[in-house]
Design brief:
about 160 residues, mainly alpha, two-stranded antiparallel sheet, 6 helices, about 55% helix, about 10% strand, elongated, Phage_term_ssu_P27, Phage terminase, small subunit, putative, P27
Length: about 160
């Protein structure tokens, strides 16, 4: 081996498999979750926020940002509302009912089912905004690029 031999004071000992880095990462995530959590949330919404914020705060996802908090809180409220509606939803046999009107027998959907369906549509929209489904996450990945990136240079 050519050159000067390394001095021991210049050698940095290796750390065991980044145990400290993992602890530091989790500590930073928890700090961000607490810092961005709005005050005066109902207990159920706060519990859902902590669950979802832990997912979004992960550095590989990195979507827990101050500008997304309103969307995240709305997602939490919608999730809590949908769980409550589903828990109190009538059994499958009671999802429809029959009514005799002047036009004859009519089969109608229970209003509770309509509320569940509307909450689900709102929930699905918020899931897409936050990238919480596999498809939506793939669409939010960097490198997707703009359809017109190449053409933008043409007009410069």
């Amino acid at each position: 081996m050519r050159g000067a031999k390394p001095k021991l004071r210049n050698v940095i000992p290796m750390r065991p498999d980044d145990v400290d880095a993992e602890k530091l990462r989790k500590k930073m995530m928890q700090r961000a979750i607490r810092r961005l959590m709005p005050r005066d949330l109902p207990a159920e919404v706060e519990k859902e926020y902590k669950r979802v914020a832990a997912i979004l705060a992960d550095p590989s996802v990195d979507r827990l940002k101050a500008r997304y908090i309103d969307t995240i809180i709305e997602y939490c409220r919608c999730t809590v509302r949908m769980r409550g509606l589903r828990a109190s939803m009538p059994t499958l046999a009671h999802e429809i009912y029959r009514v005799k009107t002047r036009n004859g027998d009519q089969v109608k959907s229970h209003p509770h089912v309509a509320q569940v369906n509307e909450s689900w549509r709102q929930w699905r929209s918020l899931i897409a905004m936050l990238g919480l489904s596999p498809t939506d996450e793939r669409n939010l990945l960097p490198g997707q690029g703009d359809l017109f990136d190449e053409n933008d240079q043409y007009f410069d």
